[in-house]
Amino acid sequence: MKFASRISAALLAAATLAFPLAAATADDVDLQALRDQVRLLEQQLKVLARKIEIKEETAAAAPAAPKVTVSDKGFALTSADGANSIKLRGLVQLDSRLFFNDGGGVVNNGFVLRRARIITEGTFAKNYSFQLVPEFGGSSVSILDANIGVAVSKAFQLKFGKFKVPVGHELLQSDSWTFFNERSIVTNLVPNRDLGIQASGDLLDGRLNYAAGIFGGLGDGGSSTNADFDNEKDFVARVFFSPFKNAAASPLQGLSFGVGGSIGREKTAAGRTSGYRTDGQQTFFAYNAATIADGPNWRVAPQVDFRSGAFGAIGEYVVSTVNVRPSATGVKTELQNTAWQVAAGYVLTGEDSSYNGVTPATNFDFAAGTWGAFELTARYASLEVDDAAFPLYAAAASNANQATSLGVGLNWYLSKAVAFKFDYYQTHFGFNAGAPASSTSQILRQDEKVFISRFQVSF
């Protein structure tokens, strides 16, 4: 509008200056025609200016285009105001397992598609979210996570559906970013994914995280299907402190510690573990097929995490108590199984160790002479089964009552999304006093020695 007014004023001024000259050389008709042309031009300029204003107003009123992001964190479509988004991520892990000195009678060497997932996550109206994670790896397709979230505030958030139960520290870590290809044998004693309702949040300026919920209830190491298997429920809670999180000058800034636990009642064979597995994912203990859970089941899991620059370490101890019967009418006994682990990693290339993985300072690029990030890892873990499990609830001849594992590894992060991981594990087995000199299980007749390499894409 200002542009049109300035042009109109200039034209009028030019016409005014021209009038005396025109009066001297032209008659009144010519002068009137000139004035009419100036008025017409002014009207046309006003119309043009108004059209420009309308166009600008329409553009300002129109919603901004959504934002599309493609990165090593996935594919995201986000509304212009950031209140709504949908994200696609993925995880593929191809493993190679090579066992040494296993007696030659076990078929266990080979390639395994350990995980293959398409992860869909979304947010609506800023405070409402969902997650859907199918698993295509392994021997069958399943739904790992399917949940809805409501974020009332940072201090109070609700989650409904199927997701990880907040007990074990290493189990809660992403499958992409654990120190080792396989979680330690400690995670045999904690529940995995279950159906439930959970409240969680951060308090004290982020120094205290809590989670508490009611779940369907699981046996050790178990994951729920899409329906509960009995009428009983478990109450689960976890608190995790990072007291020095905001103290940048403190050497303890990266120290966090807490405790998780569960209590409830489990029934039927689905209420006790289907078996405890080694680092090489071979079963070293399982209850008799007729054994059922029937009674109180509780766990407690103190845990610690420490990060300082390139160094990181975790530790946890788990006690799991279950009541079992040898059959539906047999005598009931309370068993208490325990496990613990200490694991550490050091990033040789200097990047920070993190619970959420290592981000290389430079990606692998042979032509440019950059190699990504390298991390050395080590772990020691032990699990012990209650001796009272033998021989009534589990066969001493075919089961170990103790497994002690040592692991060392090298992780090569070619980028944040691509990694090679190489681990060697050696597990020694202990047996109940009633066990024979040589186990009837081929895999238990000697230490398990296995080398697992993994190619991983995670975004």
- Amino-to-carboxy terminus distance: 51 Å
Number of helices: 3
**What is the count of distinct domains?**
2
Number of strands: 20
Strands side by side in the biggest sheet: 3-4-5-6-7-8-9-10-11-14-15-16-17-18-19-20
| Full CATH superfamily name of the largest domain | Porin
Largest sheet: 16 strands, antiparallel, barrel
* CATH C-level class of the largest domain: Mainly Beta
Structural class category: mainly beta
What is the ordering of alpha helices and beta strands?
Answer: HHEEEEEEEHEEEEEEEEEEEEE
CATH arch. level architecture of the largest domain = Beta Barrel
Q: Any idea what the shape is?
A: elongated
What does the radius of gyration come to?
34 Å
Provide structural commentary.
With 459 residues, this protein is mostly beta strands. It has two domains: 2-61; 92-114 and 156-458, Porin, CATH 2.40.160. The protein contains three helices and 20 strands. The strands form two sheets. The protein has a 16-stranded antiparallel barrel. Strands 12-13 form a two-stranded antiparallel ribbon. The longest helix has 34 residues, at 28-61. It is elongated and about 130 Å long. The chain starts with a helix and ends with a strand.
